[in-house]
């Protein structure tokens, strides 16, 4: 894995290639401080959370790979991603998942009064999510919740949506459109939406109580995917079978190509 040059705005930034996909090596304080600072400065930034499914998409889809590579922060969401970073010598690297990142940032944003906006999912889920967040973080500043249509917006409709989001004065936009749709959306709106845009996958469903999250012990062991399959096998079994297989094959390929050379 190669170290990628640090960014001028984040002098401490370090990225490593996990089976060819760049992921940030960072702790919780760095992640929270960066999102908070960008929000205070009203900067247009992209934060992606990268799990096994996202890496599998990136290995097959150049557009998704570019979306991940161009992000301002890519957190190791999946436990296997964090394991690989630890294997490369970053012993303290833990998992920074979308649902956990959202709660931690909401706590910080509530203390700072930072305005936030929820974008994605269905109206019913957004209503429940907003109610849960307001109950968990009294005084949280959620300025708007938007459930976009499932079809692709026209250029005019998208421009109107951008104007609506910018007019809300939100400094952090939580985007729950699912992978890889949300990463494509994030990339296409960089420098158009004046806020930190964070793609957090299934976090809306988890925090709204629509989908039950795996117990902490399964999360620590990297078995959250197994728990989710048991909840919705018809929809998720094929997805996880494909993405896990691609990821495992990529890991074997990486280990083989980086095996120590032996004299003959």
Q: pLDDT under 50 segments (min length 5)?
A: 1-8
Number of helices: 12
The biggest sheet amounts to: 6 strands, parallel
Computed over alpha carbons, the radius of gyration is 18 Å
Q: What portion of the residues fall into strands of 2 or more residues?
A: 5-15%
Mean pLDDT: 88
Main β-sheet, spatial strand arrangement: 4-3-8-7-5-6
End-to-end distance: 26 Å
Q: Which range best describes the helical content: under 10%, 10-25%, 25-40%, 40-55%, 55-70% or over 70%?
A: 40-55%
Main structural class: alpha/beta
Task: Identify the quaternary structure here.
Answer: single chain
Number of strands: 8
Order of helices and strands: EEHEHHEHHEHEHEHEHHHH
The coarse silhouette is globular
Explain this structure:
The chain is an alpha/beta fold. The chain has one domain. It is built from twelve helices and eight strands. Strand 5, helix 6 and strand 6 (142-146) form a beta-alpha-beta unit. Helix 1 packs across helix 5 and helix 2 packs across helix 3 (62-69). The longest helix has 25 residues, at 233-257. It starts with 14 loop residues before the first strand and ends in a 7-residue tail after the last helix. The model is unreliable at 1-8 (pLDDT under 50).
What's the topology here?
Elements: E1 15-18, E2 21-24, H1 28-40, E3 45-50, H2 52-60, H3 62-69, E4 73-76, H4 79-87, H5 98-112, E5 116-120, H6 123-136, E6 142-146, H7 155-167, E7 172-176, H8 181-188, E8 196-199, H9 203-208, H10 216-220, H11 224-231, H12 233-257
Parallel strand pairs: 3-4, 3-8, 5-6, 5-7, 7-8
Antiparallel strand pairs: 1-2
Helix pairs in contact: 1-5, 2-3, 2-12, 3-8, 11-12
